[in-house]
């Protein structure tokens, strides 16, 4: 889900900007102006545009060549027919963008999804269920906390007239990290390091959550944990793209968890929510082995082709808009065209098993990390 980290301090931001200005002196005046404009616009919270490190465009292009990148990319990760079809479409849409900031952000998100972030599971998502005792305690905390719920700050990937409410229970979010960790380790087949469990967020009437991916450095193997909703709430599906190129729409019941590779698979709730409130917990991990030794954000930056700013007309696919860390297709219902052909999945999930694309169901081996026989 949306990436829940605070922006860097103003003093750090100013130091980066001064360093960047000094280093851009080798560029032409026009290049310096355009690149600095993009950098300053991007140096904000991750709930806005994606931040840009301090390098010059010449340095970035040199690294592009050094790493052997080529565009169009010779293959995607994973290299399946459906994923290729989906990513080819998105690159076409991004190339047609005329706004420089939208275009830069679109390149980063699409490259992360298509190429630089590896996949760890067959389809990138699955439906399961959390331990019942944990769900019971979290539900009680939500109902107890409703009268004093605070209003959350503005988040530009959330649409609607009402900002979400928020209930702070760090004791329970920490517990959720610990109790859900074995499930996500079994699903992904590797040891994980907890990053954050963010919640409880209560979406309110007429909210929507636009399609996006999460932080590549820390939000890699994740789950959306549905806890409760008001009695007047309509079903509100999570929409996610899988590695076959399908768009899945999963309706969760209280206690269900949607497992997903959140830095790679575009996901959101683009349909409009109707009801008083709907609450979830967002739980994020990253791989223990070697992941933090690399800068995965930079990997995506360096893979952007030197011709990234060129505008290539798109006459085949719907027009794309990039808003901060999210994407929309405003010409289609709910601003996401593939939603019309989405495949629907409904909870409740089953503890210890994962339901995924094409109805495949797997049993998790929770005492040892890994998925065993298909059911």
UniProtKB/TrEMBL annotation:
Which domain of life does the UniProt lineage start with?
A: Eukaryota
Q: List UniProt keywords, sorted A-Z.
A: Membrane, Transmembrane, Transmembrane helix
Transmembrane intervals: 20-42
Q: What is this protein called?
A: Prolyl 4-hydroxylase alpha subunit domain-containing protein
Species of origin reads Nitzschia inconspicua
């Amino acid at each position: 889900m949306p990436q829940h980290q605070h922006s860097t301090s103003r003093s750090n931001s100013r130091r980066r900007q001064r360093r960047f200005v000094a280093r851009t002196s080798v560029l032409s005046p026009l290049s310096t102006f355009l690149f600095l404009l993009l950098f300053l616009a991007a140096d904000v919270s991750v709930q806005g545009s994606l931040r840009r490190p301090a390098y010059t465009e010449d340095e970035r292009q040199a690294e592009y060549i050094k790493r052997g990148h080529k565009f169009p990319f010779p293959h995607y990760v994973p290299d399946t027919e459906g994923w290729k079809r989906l990513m080819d479409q998105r690159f076409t849409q991004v190339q047609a963008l005329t706004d420089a900031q939208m275009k830069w952000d679109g390149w980063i998100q699409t490259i992360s999804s298509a190429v630089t972030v590896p996949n760890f599971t067959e389809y990138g998502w699955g439906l399961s269920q959390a331990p019942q005792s944990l769900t019971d305690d979290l539900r009680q905390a939500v109902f107890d906390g409703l009268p004093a719920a605070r209003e959350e700050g503005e988040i530009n990937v959330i649409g609607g007239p009402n900002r979400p409410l928020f209930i702070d229970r760090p004791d329970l979010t920490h517990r959720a990290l610990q109790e859900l960790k074995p499930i996500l380790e079994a699903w992904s087949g590797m040891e994980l390091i907890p990053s954050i469990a963010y919640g409880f967020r209560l979406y309110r009437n007429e909210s929507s959550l636009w399609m996006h991916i999460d932080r590549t450095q820390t939000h890699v193997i994740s789950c959306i944990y549905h806890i409760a909703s008001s009695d007047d709430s309509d079903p509100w599906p999570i929409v996610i793209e899988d590695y076959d190129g399908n768009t899945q729409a999963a309706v969760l019941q209280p206690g269900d968890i949607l497992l997903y590779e959140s830095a790679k698979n575009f996901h959101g709730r683009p349909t409009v929510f109707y009801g008083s409130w709907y609450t979830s917990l967002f739980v994020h991990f990253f791989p223990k082995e070697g992941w933090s030794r690399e800068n995965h954000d930079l990997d995506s930056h360096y893979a952007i082709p030197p011709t990234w700013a060129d505008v290539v007309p798109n006459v085949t696919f719907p027009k794309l808009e990039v808003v901060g860390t999210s994407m929309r297709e405003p010409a289609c219902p709910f601003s996401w065209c593939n939603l019309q052909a989405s495949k629907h999945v409904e909870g409740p999930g089953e503890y210890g098993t994962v339901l995924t694309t094409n109805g495949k169901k797997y049993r998790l081996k929770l005492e040892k990390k890994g998925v065993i026989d298909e059911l």
